[in-house]
Amino acid sequence: MRNKITIIAGFRMEIKISGHNYQYDVSGMSLLFFPGEPVCFKTHPRGALRLSSRVVNTTRGLYARATFWMEESVYRAEKKMQNYTREEMLAAVKHTIYRVFSRATGILPPWGILTGIKPTGIYQRLLAEKGALETRRILLKEYLMRPEKIPLLHQICRVMETVQTDCSKEASLYISIPFCPSRCSYCSFISVAAERCNHLMELYLEKLCGEIHEKCRVLNENGLSVRAVYIGGGTPGILSPQQIEKLLSVIRSELKAPLREFTFELGRPDTVTEEKLRLLKSFGVSRICINTQTTNDRVLEQIGRKHTRAQYLHAVSLTRKMNFDSINTDLIAGLPGEDEASFARSLEDVLKAGADNITIHTLSIKRSSRLHETPDYFDPRNDHVQRMLDRAYERLLRLGFIPYYMYRQKKTVSNGENVGFARPETICLYNLYMMEDLHTVAACGAGASTKIISGESGRIERIINVKYPFEYIGEYEKVRHNTHLLEQKLKERT
Ligand code: SF4
Hints:
This protein is α/β, with parallel strands linked by helices and 494 residues long. The protein has helices at 2-8, 23-33, 86-105, 119-142, 149-162, 194-221, 241-254, 274-282, 297-302, 309-321, 340-353, 384-398, 429-435, 469-474, 476-493, and strands spanning 13-18, 39-41, 49-58, 61-70, 73-80, 170-177, 179-180, 192-193, 225-233, 261-267, 287-290, 326-333, 357-362, 402-407, 418-422, 440-444, 449-453, 460-464. The protein starts with a helix and ends with a helix. The site of iron/sulfur cluster has 11 residues, from loops.
């Protein structure tokens, strides 16, 4: 089986669809099983990998059918529809594709036919409409999910229900610092390595402070109080103490209501100093993120993160002495050179260091990352990453950590997910406000995405800033335009 995939690597997946128009979802299914193979839709596919997905109306009823050709073998599946709803048709189309791909490759993706980023939304809706037993049946039999994922969904949804916010009165503020000390090999973010653009940072900060001032004015004038602030990156810890002071002074002067939470993502451990921590504490920062991703020094070097395990442990120990409300650390399962034992050791290090929040990511390899050139990562049968996740979840649950938010990304190794765990009473509110679209998030900086949530209609609108720091500085009128758009949309909302 393994050889088959290797032999066909480099071929395109050619797809013909008829009787439905779920191109996007069909592409998503193809990426689950063949993440390295580009997809193209054709009227007459002829390649070594080709799929036909169709919906046909017969005298016996409406059917979804899939036929998949892989080299000399042909795989077929069909599913009859009962209710003829769009939702049922989409599920049936994905179901048949899952079956032919799964038979051909032996792969059983952990989330079955669910390709979206938020399976929690589907779980909540099913639970409300169908009850627990029927929801479980649908997830296992219709969506073909692995059973071990259901308790995870259930626990996360229970935590989500406890978080309250009045979306007509409250908002969050996100601030992007897209600079890093060096570029990690797996990074697909817009962040730029500081050595190449140190000169940009001062100019960037100048413009950023202006945008924060304007966005906060718009929120205040429209009756929205900022209740959570998140300064993320990139690596915000790269800012000098003077730059941090300038940024936090501007933020503080704009806030009109007490914050529930103030997160500063220092990021790389080698940027953490006592002076910066004191400063953050004096401005009321409550949550610090120090992200090591792994504590295996060999892996850290291999992925281009210029810090060590010792620096991580020292950074967390310094931070703990300052009594912030919580410390978060991100880990990534599936990094090159990291096996199950090494990942388990990383988790133990993070636990011993004393992180209150531990976010377990699965390595995702986007086109713009250097790792994208390594095709081995695209084999979704690398099940060892699922085992890393399962063992980590088990360990964290046993220690009393609670899973409280989750999202999925495309092109993750082993089709894994990202899950935030927290000790009780330390869940990150911003993550929930933002991920679950609970209220408006005004986002400032390059690449930042503002989300406007309209309470009653539940409508979500996005306004995205220019991508790169040099554009942000050079084309600041576009940022002003976005702030104006935010103002208009908030006015329309009321
Ligand atoms: S620290 Fe994060 S944002 Fe910066 S290069 Fe590494 S992965 Fe990208």
